[in-house]
Amino acid sequence: MRGMSAENPQMQIGWPPTSGRRSLILQPEAAARRSVAALEDKTGLDCPDRAFPLIFYPTRMPHYIAFLRGMNLGNRRIKMGDLRALFEELKFTGVGTFIASGNVIFSSKSADEGKLVRQIQDHLAKSLGYEVDTFLRTRAEVAAVAAFRPFAAADFDHPGHTVYAGFLTAPLTPAQSRGFAACSTVVDEFRVQGREYYWLCRIASNESKAWATPQMRALKLPSSSMRRLTTVRKLAELFAPA
Q: Which candidate, 50, 31, 34, places its Cα nearest to that of 42?
């Protein structure tokens, strides 16, 4: 098994889970190694010899992916090992992280999403000294976001365009949804589906002015956390619904 690539640190994943082993199912080692080899071939990731990301599945517990807003931007810096430790302090199991933008995978006995969000936000604020808006999705919900195609194929699949998914706590109001879609231009296009919105950008995203227009600001959109759709797809592949 190949070691973790030092040449591509952004693609490192926080494996293996370090807690909750009593509730885990372990595949035979040969099968686990075949799973990891297939994963490496499919995604181009290099997994450490001791890391079997597909073997550990907490049983009879809801699985979540937490999307944290604004992590590792500006002065809000945290190592992923420290972030995993903070989630483990909340007694979550199977805790892992994916790249350094604040994507945390975990299992919990609780199925109360609102309660979990409050626990995470309160604990992070207390531990880090700043608020961290948190957006939870189940693995099935992440898979649905990854599979959704909100734009015309010619734009959606264009190599020069970037598509982002934005995660909200609750759906936008009908008026906000209409207004958001109406902010589309020849450069930027917007769609809303459930608790997510989608942004297609036909230029470099940092050159887009769409988010600073009076029309967009007038919508007073609630807090959200955006990810490239390519990141969401990788999460959906790596942590597919059981």
A: 34
Amino acid (1-letter code) at residue 138: T
Q: Are 76 and 44 in contact (CB under 8 A)?
A: no
Query: Token pair of 166, please?
Result: 């934005």
Please give the Cα distance from 17 to 52 (Å, whole number).
9
Give the torsion through C-alpha atoms of 161, 147, 222, 177, to 10 deg: 80
Positive or negative, the Cα torsion across 89, 91, 96, 99?
A: negative
Each residue's pLDDT tens digit, 28-77: 444 444 555 565 555 554 444 334 444 344 446 789 999 999 998 888 89
Q: Max alpha carbon distance in the chain (Å)? A: 58
Residue 218, SS3 per DSSP: helix
- Other beta carbons less than 10 A from residue 241's beta carbon: 12
Q: Is the dihedral of CA 195, 157, 188, 68 positive or negative?
A: positive
**Model pLDDT for residues 147-201, shown as the tens digit of each residue:** 999 999 999 999 999 999 999 999 999 999 999 999 999 999 999 999 999 999 9
Domains assigned to the chain: 9-138 (3.30.70.1280), 144-232 (3.30.70)
For residue 95, give the 3-state DSSP assignment. strand
Read off the pTM. Answer: 0.77
Residue matched to tokens 């350094």: 100
